[in-house]
Amino acid sequence: MTIKSPERMLGCVFLQPNVARDCWVAKRRNPTYNYKRLHIIILLLLYITNTYAAKDTLVSEKHNMIQIIYNKFHQILTEGETELYIPAYTWHNRYMYVPHSTKRFNEIPWGGGFGKSLDNDEKGYEHDLFAFAFMDSNRHLEPIMGYGILKTVRLDPNTKIGAGMIVGITARKDMYSYKPFPGTLPWLSCKHKRTTIGMTYIPGRYNIGNVLFVVINWALP
Q1: Tell me, which fold does domain 8-219 have in CATH?
Q2: Does 136 participate in catalysis according to the annotation?
């Protein structure tokens, strides 16, 4: 039985609503369609959190859409905390792979990067911009940059938890030969004082995907 790289499924999660389809199907999707889809996702997230307009405002013109995204990203970059991103661990779900086949995969994703995080405790949302790189399961460098939004709950003055999603652009050696492609994934976080542990799970099927990815963030003074 052929064991495919688990992160090849990343492309399927990014481009396909049905992750059970093979990655070769995702490769044949129109790239322009995928970037438009990413654009729409970001706009919907900003609308849901009511961060840019009244609920009865209908934004339909393209230049207004671009302005909405620009304003929010500018606010995050100018008002948000600067964070150091440290990829910490990738775990390949042993229950979803042929026994012992995961031994050849890298699970220490050496790398790093930076991000900006903006809290809105009044509305209970956190907005993040980030860019970092790490070693993937096949020990190839993978860069990623994107935007994340989480609904947060504060447990005490120093601790909060959150759940949401990230949308971004990445590039892989085994996916499009390092040609950038967009995607979206779920995201969970737990923050205590200046330290945040964030994680996502890349779904898939047997011998493909099913990877837990953990990142540690530290807010710089």
Answers
A1: Porin (2.40.160)
A2: yes
CB of 210 closer than 8 Å to CB of 190: no
Q: Which of 127, 137, 174, 189 is catalytic?
A: 137
Residue-wise pLDDT for 66-114, tens only, equals: 888 889 999 999 999 999 999 999 999 999 999 888 999 999 999 999 9
- Which listed residue (119, 128, 136, 174) is catalytic? 136
**Within 10 Å of residue 155's Cβ, how many Cβ atoms?**
12
**Catalytic site residue 137?**
yes
Domain boundaries, the chain: 8-219
What confidence tens digit (pLDDT) does each residue in 44-63 have? 666 555 544 444 444 455 56
Residues 213, 109 contacting (CB under 8 angstroms) = yes
For 47, residues 6+ apart whose C-beta sits below 8 A from its C-beta are 53, 59
Which three-class secondary structure string do you get for 71-138? HHHHHHHHHCEEEEEEEEEEEECHHHCCCCHHHHCCCCCCEEEEEEEEEECCCCEEEEEEEEEEECCC
Handedness of CA 171, 67, 50, 78 (dihedral sign): positive
Asked whether the beta carbons of 191 and 74 are under 8 A apart, the reply is no
Task: List 118's β-bridge partners, or say none.
Answer: 127
**From 5, 92, 174, 189, active-site residue:** 92
Sign for the pseudo-dihedral over CA of 55, 58, 63, 69: positive
For 132-184, what is each residue's pLDDT tens digit? 999 999 999 999 999 999 999 999 999 999 999 999 999 999 888 899 999 89
